[in-house]
Sequence to fold (455 residues):
Amino acid sequence: MGGRQFVAILRKDLIRELRTKEMLISMFLFVMLAMVIFHYAFTVKESVDLTYFTGGMLWVTFIFAALLGLNRSFAQEKDENCLDGLLLCPVDRVTIFFAKMTGNLIFLAIIQAVAIPVFTVFFVKHGYYGRLPSFLLVVLLADLGICALGTLLATISMNTRARDLLLPIVFLPLIVPVLIAATSATTAIFSGGSEFGPLGAKLVFLAMFDIIFMVAAYGTYDFAIGE
Amino acid sequence: MILKRLLTAPALYAVAGALLAAGLLLAFLYAPTDTSSMGFSQKIFYYHAPIAECALLAFGIAFVAAILYLRSNDPKYDVLGMVAIRLGLLFSLLVMATGMIWGRAAWGVWWAWEPRLTTFLIVCLLYTAYFVLRQTVEEESRRATFAALFAIIAFVDVPITFFATRFMPAGLHPVVFGRGGGMPGSDLLAFFVSMIGMTLLLIAMLRQELAVEHLKEDLYHLKNRIGA
Fold:
C-alpha cells in the first residue's frame, strides 16, 4: 500500500467533489429534510421531549446520507470510465479501497459537523457538553464502520446491473449492528441515562466492527473491484 | 460402497425422519415438563433449537464454500454455496415461525424484540439480499465471485449482529429464552436425537438440491447441443 498513491486518489476525489459540490449539497439537503420530517413524525403531542429519539434520528439519517454519498462516489467513476483508468494504474487495489473509504469518511464527517449541532439544538433538552469527547469518539468509530463496509459493498454493487438500487438492500441489514450500538451510545450520552448500559462496551464493539470489516475488505477487495 | 448407499438422499431422509419422530416422542413422553414459567410450551424447544443450529450450519457451509470458491474459481463451490444459503434461509424462516409460536405460548405475544429472534429476522433479510445480488449480475464468474464475497461478509456479520441486539435496553422480557440452567439427562436425550435428526435432514436436502442443480446444468448443456 503506497502512501503517495493513497493521497493522490483521495486528493482527486476531494477536488472533484469540491468543484461541483453536488454530493455534499444533496447530502446536506437530505439531512435537513430528514430532520424536519422526523420532527413531525415523532411529535405526537405538543411539547414532547424528543431527547430520547435524537440518537436514533441522527444515525438513521447518517446511514441514509452515507448511502447517497457511497453511491455517488462510485457512480461517477463508472459513468466516465474513470475506474478503468484507475485500475490500469500501477496501484494496489487495497490502496484504492482505503483512499475511497477515507474520502467517504471525510464527506460524511463534513455533513455531520453541520447536522449534529442543528439536530441537538432542536431536539436535545439536556446539556451533554461534558460528554462531548466520548460522543465524538462514538461518531468517529461508527463512521469508520459505515464507510469501511459501505465502500466495500458500493464497489460490489457498482459492478452489477441494479447498481444504486442494490446497495441499500445489501448494506442496510449488514450495518444494523453499528446502528444499534451507535444509537444506544448516543441516546445514553444525550439523555445522561445509565439504563443503556456502559458506554465503554459499545465503543469497544464499534472499534471491533471497524477492524473486522477493514480486515475483511483488505482480504477481499481484489475480488470486489474486478480485473 | 455400503457407506455410499447409506449417504444418498433417500436413505438420509429415512434416517432423519425416524430420528425426528423419535425426538418428538421422547420430548413429549420421556422428557419432564419444564418446571419454570414455560411449562408445556417448552416442548417446541426440541425442534426450535435444532432448526436454528441447522440454519447456522447451512450458512457456515456457504461461508466455507465461498472461501473455497475464491481460492479455486471452481463453479461447484458456487452451486454449493447457493444451495446452502437457500436451505439456510428456509431453516431461518422456520426458526422465526417456531419462535413466534413459542413466544405466543410463553409470553402471550407473537413477536418480541428478543436478541435471538431479532437476529434471525435480520439474517432472513440479509440472506434474501444474497439472491437479489445474484439476480443483478449476468456474467457467471462475476456473479459467483460477488455471491461468495457477500456470503463471507454476511457470515461474519451474523454473530456481530447477535452481540449488538443485546445493547437494546433490557428488562422488556424477564424470561430468559433457551436452556437457562443445565438440562436434566432425559431432556438432553430428546434434544440430541432431534438435533442429529435435523442435521441429517439438512444434509439430505443439501444433497438433493445439489443433484437438482447438476441436472439443471446437464439439461442446459443438452439444450445447447441440439440448438434449442
